[in-house]
Design brief:
3 copies of one chain form a homotrimer. Chain A is an alpha/beta fold and 318 residues long. In chain A, 42% of the residues lie in helices and 14% in strands.
Chain lengths: 318, 318, 318
Amino acid sequence: MTVSLGKDLVGLEHLSREQITAILDTAEPFKEVSERQIKKVPALRGKTIVNLFFEPSTRTRISFEFAEKRLSADTVNVAASGSSVSKGETLVDTARNLEAMRIDMVVIRHGSSGAAKFLGDRINSNVINAGDGKHEHPTQALLDMLTLRDRFGSIEGLKVCIVGDVLHSRVARSNIWGLTRLGAEVAVCGPATLLPRDVEQLGVTVFPRVEAAIEWADALNVLRLQLERMTSGFIPSLREYNRVFGVTAEKLARAPKDLCILHPGPMNRGVEIDSEVADGPHSVILPQVTNGVAVRMAVLYLLAGGSQDAGSSGSEMS
Amino acid sequence: MTVSLGKDLVGLEHLSREQITAILDTAEPFKEVSERQIKKVPALRGKTIVNLFFEPSTRTRISFEFAEKRLSADTVNVAASGSSVSKGETLVDTARNLEAMRIDMVVIRHGSSGAAKFLGDRINSNVINAGDGKHEHPTQALLDMLTLRDRFGSIEGLKVCIVGDVLHSRVARSNIWGLTRLGAEVAVCGPATLLPRDVEQLGVTVFPRVEAAIEWADALNVLRLQLERMTSGFIPSLREYNRVFGVTAEKLARAPKDLCILHPGPMNRGVEIDSEVADGPHSVILPQVTNGVAVRMAVLYLLAGGSQDAGSSGSEMS
Amino acid sequence: MTVSLGKDLVGLEHLSREQITAILDTAEPFKEVSERQIKKVPALRGKTIVNLFFEPSTRTRISFEFAEKRLSADTVNVAASGSSVSKGETLVDTARNLEAMRIDMVVIRHGSSGAAKFLGDRINSNVINAGDGKHEHPTQALLDMLTLRDRFGSIEGLKVCIVGDVLHSRVARSNIWGLTRLGAEVAVCGPATLLPRDVEQLGVTVFPRVEAAIEWADALNVLRLQLERMTSGFIPSLREYNRVFGVTAEKLARAPKDLCILHPGPMNRGVEIDSEVADGPHSVILPQVTNGVAVRMAVLYLLAGGSQDAGSSGSEMS
């Protein structure tokens, strides 16, 4: 029984439990590739992939780029600065041009929610969302889930609390959809100004105080606090944020059990998370990064395989 | 009978009909490579190519980069920002350094007319002009001609009108030289402020009104209007430009026959071309982009092959 | 008898004569690779390397990148702009993330002295210093020494004078350590404001006047004068600098023998060196660039080989 992801990965909201599980299961053997002396498999040899990043990124771009190269694909990076975009070209014209060059896949990061879907709907190449506005960042949530599965054996029934600026976070949104689909209980915790008004409608519990979240959860996914939230008036000060919502060793010491700690990075040490926690024994922040490459290899591989199974229609474009 | 391109491709002005035809003919089989599942041939394996872009570019740089990668070359990108150039190094020192690193080829885009020839005269590596000031952009004209040949079977006798800012356009100049060399009749049409004063000396007809051009031509090559032309006083307003010189469905409807529409991109929709035309049935704008990869593969291949045929002298440097 | 470089190359200060000689000897056969039609050997196939450049660079970055590609490694470039660094991430977090992605090697250029060692001490991946603040630029000194050895047969007993802004120069520091270790006599010459106060303690002679240096030396290594030294008041004017410390044909004409002239580039022609000298028969400035690729291939190869010899511990991380 083969599970297809369809043509694109724009988010986890509309993926089934089987599709998400298929990605996590496919990532398993790819983990081992990165541990080899020769970190390369020929799966995507001769495929051409564009990493189209309209927002700056190090870790996600590099992670995708190594995932692509370890699958033997040919990759080209396009950053917003120095691109036709600065000449006023529309996203759809950029996309059609890439397709006309017979690009097999586009990995897109864009400041506008919906950009990845917009692109995917207009071109035959596979599109992978590497973060679109405040909407979704599906490969981040997938690597979070793979890391939780590694640690706990299963996502089913797991209690995961997402802590911080849920309002502006595409990581939070993708995690909520993905985790609930796999049967986890999900909660969020953060200042009222940084929680979406209707967040309960996503099926999550709200903890106004991080102490209560710590008492409840098996794992905390600590979000990065964009420092501009302070100047924009969402929070009074970084120090105050750290005091009330920062995940500190002191607060964790009062938990009834050891909590698994995730963070999508880059971290603001001493703000949303203390170094003692980030570098502590229950942190899985670096395993998350390692899993990121494997999960991205899995997504690239499955999307490419999907279009290959699609037969003659696939052979035209990809 | 082998036709050599020489060491460099700096422009079409000094290429013979045989040389241009050789490039177009060589592009034909390369079109098919980009339609394969595995878009890769080993023709330039182990060759090292630098894409030296002193002006921003998305489509041309990506097109060259995929052409290079589909030929299995190793490529390195150098952008003006963040380069030694910002430390005041001269172009010739940059070039000699690249040659000293045993670069096989340099693809250069530069704001100064003549930069590609200047470079080619000073290094043994092959040099390909990807646009030099207002001078030439030969691979763009070659892909335009390949697209016209695809559509009409032959360039000979074809009536092609270049519409817009001919004065500042390296695309126009390369098209005029290439098309006339292959026996086409070439015209230009645009505001008097944006036509070179002595343009008739290039062997082209001038149409002051786009309606007359539409009546005459088999194909229109619609140039991008650099929006800074307006602030510089070359044209009164974008709206006025669109009204008088914009290629619209309304104007085309009065043509005695269907016109083939080309545009080098990126387009200013609603300025020099309307979306209805750009996306219409007679537009070959996306086939142009597809042909761009094939034409660049052909040029890279022929220049590399040329130096390989040159025997022992070629083995020293390339 | 195998000489190991250890895990990292952070500088020449702590390398033995045997280690430096091993790098130069290993570079010899790699010179030939860049002269081949197919400039590629499979030595680092499937290895993943990040070029992490926090300071702009053309020649060093390209030289490393082609060295990596000619060894068949997979490379990713990270520039400071557009990276997580601009989001305030610490260098150690960046490094740990790269390691978590199972990067085999990191080539780092950074504005802070000690950055490469700091990085190397915190990750298991091999680290190569491509210039750290005013500290060291070991591969530049290695290519300088390889070029001197090509010209003179041996470094032992050679008289080399480093001319210019020794105070701010990581190239000078690496050369002083490397050359003295191989038995050369080293001198420095420059304005008192641009010489380190305790420079004699490094075992070098100081020549206050370039004429005396020219009379003494077999080779001059002419440093680039950062033009901002003038505005910062280190020197009165570029013209005055050229008159007193510039290496000119006129001054060289009075030397008792022909001097070999080196420059790390990019050159300020007419400031620290005249074009007649830079392009003259005794200049080895372009052979330096050619040797740069070979030396970097040697360093990459030896560090990778070192970790392979390290056996089971190496197979985990690299």
